[in-house]
Write a structure and sequence with these properties.
Blueprint: E1 2-8, H1 31-35, E2 44-50, H2 59-73, E3 75-81, H3 88-100, E4 104-108, H4 122-133, E5 137-140, H5 147-156, E6 162-164, H6 183-193, E7 198-202, H7 205-208, H8 215-229, E8 234-236, H9 253-268, H10 272-284
Parallel strand pairs: 1-2, 2-3, 3-4, 4-5, 5-6, 6-7, 7-8
Length: about 290
């Protein structure tokens, strides 16, 4: 079996500054650490690095650092950090990213930390069109209430391939008190999926639940994205190491999430080659 992890983070607080890190995550997670967390019984494994949100002036440094360890860490592509609402500065930044590494295939403006509605503004749409003009992709990381903004962006910039990170971060409750998918999340998810350039990452649910989950708890949400996007527009991601932390870092959580999704996919007739390999390569344009 072949696996592309479509959502892998790497960082080193000794090299770059991450103001959001705390607790067990405030540690080095790089090539040595990910090589200790390889998936069991997988013949070929690679990963797409997604920006880990260092301070804004270090975005280019982050790309260069990841590029320097990419071969050792199994990284075949980079989704870099970029602010898309900065006009001329956005255009200059995108050019700097392209110069920093040929592995850059897309960007992420971390919308979950921004005011609702930013992705609907003229300045953001201009930046999104600049990303699309380079043949790059956009990772949309939002809170559940912002999901409709992503659907609006998909309508405004139909030439931009968009992938929804972490299913749009729906509330899933706890192992002891699971929640069903909300009507609002389902509505906005379906609206986004109407756009053929929109994909969804099957990732991040453990991280939103403190690193703890049950298969039964997450399956209704996996079923919902399968119904909305179909098997050809879903891709698996580990969200490592964020989704491997409960009160402390839990070794093996990455493999456990892989098994959860793999078992679910097999039970629903979802082709593993699509979910774990082909879809991510096709979306990010990796040859």
């Amino acid at each position: 079996m072949r696996v592309i992890d479509s959502h892998l983070h790497l960082w080193d607080p000794e090299f770059l500054t991450y103001e959001w890190l705390e607790g067990a995550l405030d540690w080095r997670f790089a090539e040595d650490e990910i090589n200790e967390e390889q998936l069991a019984s997988v013949e070929e494994e690679a990963a797409i690095f997604v920006q880990a949100d260092p301070i804004s002036e270090q975005t280019i440094d982050e790309v260069r650092w990841v590029d320097s360890i990419a071969l050792a860490a199994g990284v075949v592509a980079i989704v870099a950090g970029a602010k898309l609402d900065q006009g001329a500065e956005t255009h200059e930044h995108l050019e700097s990213l392209a110069q920093a590494s040929a592995r850059v295939v897309g960007v992420r403006h971390l919308l979950q930390s921004e005011p609702d509605g930013l992705a609907r503004t003229a300045s953001f749409i201009e930046g999104a069109r600049a990303v699309a003009s380079r043949g790059w992709t956009f990772d949309a990381c939002v809170r559940e209430r912002q999901l409709s903004d992503v659907a609006a962006l998909a309508a405004d910039v139909p030439e931009l391939p968009i992938v929804l990170d972490h299913l749009g971060k729906p509330a899933i409750g706890t192992v002891d008190a699971p929640l069903r998918p909300s009507a609002e999340w389902l509505r906005d998810l379906v609206d986004l999926a109407q756009h053929p350039q929109a994909y969804c990452k099957v990732s991040g649910l453990p991280g939103e639940n403190g690193g703890e989950w049950s298969d039964a708890q997450v399956e209704p949400f996996l079923d919902a994205v399968l119904e909305a996007f179909g098997p050809e527009r879903l891709m698996w991601g580990s969200d490592w190491p964020v989704s491997s932390v409960a009160d402390d870092y839990v070794a093996g959580s990455r493999d456990r999430w892989f098994r959860t999704v793999s078992d679910w996919a097999a039970s629903r007739g979802v082709p593993a080659e699509r979910l774990f390999w082909h879809n991510a390569l096709a979306f990010y344009g990796i040859r």
